[in-house]
Amino acid sequence: MSTTDSSRGSSWRIFLLVGRLALAGIFLFAAYAKLKPQAAMPWSAASIRTSLSMFAMQVGSYEMLPPQAVKLVARTLPFFELGLGLWLLTGLWMRFSSLATTLLLSGFFAVMVRTFAKGIEVNCGCFGPGEQLGWKTLVRDGSMLALALGVTIGAFLMRRSPVDSAISTTASEPTPQGAS
Amino acid sequence: MIRQNQVALRLPIFAVLVLLGSLALGFPSQTAGQAQKRAHAAVDSAAAAPPVKTLGNKSAPITMEVFSDYQCPACRSLFEGTLRPLINDYVASGKVYLIHRDFPLPIAAHTHSWEAARWANAAAKIGKFQDVDAALFDNQLLWSGSGDIEKYVSGALNATDFKRVQALMAGACMNDPGPVLNPANLPAGPSGHACSLDNYIEQDANLGKQIPVTQTPTISITYKGQKYPASGGNIAWPLLKDYFDSLLQQ
């Protein structure tokens, strides 16, 4: 093993660790922003229901789904994001968690681009209410998608064990897919 | 003898009839004058009163403000698909107090938005906002093309009310094209437009700027004195209803 290969492997590990934790943080925050009680309400099942109803209005404003489907998406998506965030945080089966993240972000991004291209003015709904969809949100979500894609590719290249190799000791040898 | 008595009896009757007839001939001008005075008084009092663009009970737990442009298709969709059932159900049952706010967009295609808002405000001054508001949205596609808003306002009101609204619109409100409004450039307060109705539109637009409204329709909801984040775009009634139900269960 050359020094160059070793340093490249370390860089990949650092990228995967930072990327994975960043994505975990993004999804945990996104879930929190959608579930958190609205102004002056305490945390309770009723206040979470209100927050989800508010989120449903934002999903509905994309004008893509009938109300019943909108309600279903709005009631499940924040919990899915929460689960995905926790999964990314643990680093378990990282190839699959990062792939799921990439697919989800691709879906979000496609919907946002479609809506923006059609000239429909909506609240993004990405991180709670009050954020209008525009160039800024597209660039941000596009960057998140690029990061997720990079982490997914890296995870597949670096796959070694069920537990994320990036959280193991940096002394171990990187095993790119082609070499294993 | 009998014949003479009959003639004698008929003469006073004839005299009374002549007197009544002459009085009757004098009455119409007096009655018309009084009616005209009453109409003028009604217009004067309406001109002084602020327009009432609200529906429902002010003490309802939920207050919903809708910032709207009469020429915006999404506003029409919101009105037809969401506000109508809202008015018939939650406003009627005292759960929601609905406030209309004018927010004519500075878009070239919306050349009649401002004028439509004037008609709505004039109608609101005589307590006929709901009828004209509905007529404007129902016929949006028709008057947007022709610019003949008056026709659809007249169709929504009886002759007397329409005359009162027309009187409020007379003069500057009819002839002056109104500010080609850019809400971003609106002054902070009433600026003494030639058409006094413009001041009410401007007040609404200024309230929208504070939110800030960036699109129409935008709805702003207040529940038990607490304002919640504004939502833009068309919102389906089942989703809004679900949101209101969740608020009311708090």
Measured between the Cα atoms of the first and last residue of chain B, the distance is 97 Å
Terminal residue distance of chain A: 14 Å
Low-confidence stretches of chain A: 161-180
Strand fraction of chain A: under 5%
> Helices and strands of chain B, in N-to-C order?
HEEHEHHHHHHHEEH
Number of strands of chain B: 5
Provide the gyration radius of chain B in Å.
Answer: 25 Å
**Please, how many helices of chain A?**
5
Work out the radius of gyration of chain A: 19 Å
Amount of helix of chain B: 55-70%
**Count of helices of chain B?**
10
Protein topology:
The complex is a heterodimer of chains A (about 180) and B (about 250).
Chain A: H1 3-35, H2 45-60, H3 67-90, H4 94-117, H5 135-157
Helix pairs in contact in A: 1-3, 1-5, 2-3, 4-5
Chain B: H1 2-48, E1 54-55, E2 62-68, H2 73-91, E3 96-102, H3 113-125, H4 129-138, H5 140-146, H6 149-156, H7 159-169, H8 172-175, H9 197-210, E4 218-223, E5 226-232, H10 237-248
Parallel strand pairs in B: 2-3
Antiparallel strand pairs in B: 1-3, 2-4, 4-5
Describe this structure in words.
Chain A has helices spanning 3-35, 45-60, 67-90, 94-117, 135-157. With 180 residues, chain A is mainly α. Chain A is globular. Chain A has 5 helices and no strands. In chain A, helix 1 (3-35) packs across helix 5. Chain B has helices at residues 2-48, 73-91, 113-125, 129-138, 140-146, 149-156, 159-169, 172-175, 197-210, 237-248, and strands at 54-55, 62-68, 96-102, 218-223, 226-232. In chain B, strand 4 and strand 5 (226-232) form a beta hairpin. The radius of gyration of chain B is 25 Å and the shape is globular. Chain B has 10 helices and 5 strands. The longest helix of chain B is centred in the first third of the chain and has 47 residues, at 2-48. Helices cover 58% and strands 12% of the residues of chain B. The A-B interface holds A 38-41, 46-47, 49-50, 52-54, 56-58, 60-61, 63, 67-68, 70-71, 120-123, 128-130, 132 and B 214-215, 226-236, 238-240, 242-243, 245-247, 249-250.
